[in-house]
Specification:
The complex is a heterodimer of chains A (293) and B (184). By secondary structure, chain A is mainly α. Chain A has a domain of 174 residues. In chain A, 72% of the residues lie in helices and 3% in strands. Chain A has 10 helices and 2 strands. Chain A has a two-stranded antiparallel sheet with strand order 1-2. In chain A, strand 1 and strand 2 form a beta hairpin. In chain A, helix 9 runs antiparallel to helix 10. The relative contact order of chain A is 0.16. By secondary structure, chain B is α+β, with helices and mostly antiparallel strands. Chain B has a single domain, classed as Beta Complex (Ferric Hydroxamate Uptake Protein, Chain A, domain 1), CATH 2.170.130. Helices cover 22% and strands 23% of the residues of chain B. In chain B, a hairpin with a 2-residue loop joins strand 5 and strand 6. Chain B starts with a helix and ends in a 17-residue tail after the last strand. Classes of the chains: A mainly alpha (293), B alpha+beta (184).
Chain lengths: 293, 184
């Protein structure tokens, strides 16, 4: 079920970078919504169903928080809804907050998918020879949070097994978290040192050292690469000529519906759902092959 | 469970403090439909709000604001108007009353948040600090002089003339002498 993961790392790297680039630097509501949709579909395809639902419990409150916080601090806009401590809370600020929340969650989802697909060995395969030190630091930084969560769950279970803070009370659980956090800080520092020492001991960055996993650039990789570059070029050109300019203050702008603008939306929409389509296609082919046995 | 009850109590306390500190008004409550009538014996001051400098630096202006709706073609947001001066009124009080009466948008940072112990005017009529170049923002002038302190600390007297002026060059273009301008 990981069609995208079998692609050449250079292709997947370029793909993730292009989606994140557009999602973060072209603040247009349609493109952001497409990035969010694509990221959500891709993450749902990569994960088990239960895990995806559990994630919703994290992203939904985050979405609401980001969306509501902006109008509390930004009072620009022509449509006041009500006045809070003499300053207006406006519809425009609320909409801008929603757009920020969509962007933040879209980026988070794409980073999550990145972590699933671009494992450390792929990253080091791409950049290990070029920039050995930086790529090691980067790959450690990128896998820091998943590793951290895994280890903190382990520590927490160990603490419970020892009978510490095993009660059901919320205060106890919060205290337990704090204790685990303290343990995790020293662990993560130590772990970073150990990882780099271990990599050094294995001759990382020395001449003639081969990679852990090898990848071949196949024809299908070339095709996907070409599609990605073409689809990325359209929104970039659109941003350069000002099609994707969008204002929230003081009055919310109009979403353009000229043929050129629709081409930009369609191109980025295709780009962001591309991995999901690949995954679905792979699943269909797999089920079909299984049914024939 | 005892600890939980304590924690819940603490959270409720924090929420109560937060709710007590917020003051919510509807749009109709905020905008004034009536303002003190000027009678022969009432003390008055004159207030005007202008942004002529923006017209000279139109190329620096935020593209979203480039319309006659946000920057009037003559640069006058509020023509000189007389307002009744109440006992102990500061420049900020007069401005606050005037914008509420005229339904002009305004955003400010409260005196408690400002390091100068005075209200800081962030934006009037959608024109904000930095909306027209990195040195732009709102300044005020009373009887032709730029005071050295914030608008909520300047107490007014009868007959004074207050001007809120938008600067695009840290006060130099509107003649604030202590910012290197030529004065009036």
């Amino acid at each position: 079920m990981k069609a995208f993961a079998n692609m050449h790392p250079a292709v997947s790297m370029l793909y993730f970078l292009s989606v994140l680039l557009v999602c973060m630097f072209i603040p247009h509501p349609v493109l952001q919504a497409e990035a969010l949709l694509g990221g959500a579909l891709f993450c749902a395809a990569l994960q088990k169903r239960g895990a995806a639902l559990r994630d919703l419990g994290f992203y939904l409150p985050l979405f609401l928080m980001v969306a509501v916080v902006n109008p509390l601090f930004s009072h620009n806009g022509v449509t006041p809804l009500f006045f809070l401590n003499e300053n207006p809370v406006t519809l425009e600020a609320l909409l801008y907050g929603v757009s920020l929340a969509v962007m933040v969650i879209g980026v988070l989802l794409w980073c999550k998918a990145y972590n699933e697909i671009m494992t450390s060995d792929k990253f080091l395969y791409l950049f290990g020879k070029l920039i050995p030190k930086l790529s090691l630091v980067l790959s450690m930084a990128l896998r820091f949070i998943p590793t951290y969560l895994r280890q903190s769950r382990r520590v927490s279970r160990a603490q419970k097994a020892m009978g510490l803070y095993a009660g059901k009370s919320i205060t106890d659980r919060v205290k337990n978290r704090m204790r685990v956090l303290a343990a995790m800080i020293s662990w993560s520092l130590e772990n970073a040192m150990e990882t780099s020492a271990s990599m050094k001991a294995r001759g990382y960055g020395k001449k003639g050292r081969t990679n852990f996993s090898l990848f071949r650039f196949r024809a299908s990789d070339g095709v996907l690469l070409a599609i990605c570059i073409c689809l990325l070029a359209v929104p970039l050109i659109g941003a350069a000529v000002g099609i994707t300019d969008f204002m929230y203050y003081p009055r919310v702008g109009v979403i353009q519906t000229t043929p050129a603008a629709i081409a930009v939306y369609a191109a980025f929409g295709t780009l962001s759902v591309l991995p999901f389509i690949l995954e679905v296609k792979e699943a269909i082919v797999w089920n079909y092959s299984v049914s024939k046995i | 469970m005892k600890k939980d009850i304590l924690a819940v109590f603490g959270i409720i306390l924090i929420l109560a403090v937060l709710i007590n500190g917020t003051h919510i008004q509807s749009v109709d409550e905020y905008y004034l439909t009536h303002i003190d009538d000027i009678t022969p014996e009432s003390e008055t001051v004159t207030l005007s709000i202008r942004c002529d400098t923006v017209l000279q630096h139109y190329e620096d202006l935020d593209p979203a604001l480039r319309s006659e709706e946000f920057v009037p073609p003559d640069g006058v947001i509020l023509p000189p108007t007389e307002y009744v001066l109440r006992e102990g009124d500061t420049v900020f009080d007069i401005l606050d009353r005037a914008v509420r009466y005229n339904k002009i948008q305004m955003e400010f940072q409260g005196a408690a948040k400002s390091p100068f112990g005075s209200v800081y005017m962030q934006g009037i009529h959608y024109l904000y600090e930095f909306s027209c170049g990195p040195l732009s923002g709102w300044m005020y002038r009373v009887d032709g002089e730029f005071p050295h302190y914030g608008c909520s600390r300047y107490e007014l007297h009868d007959g004074q003339n207050i001007e809120w002026i938008y600067t695009c060059d840290l006060g130099q273009d509107i003649g604030a002498p202590w910012m290197g301008g030529q004065g009036k």
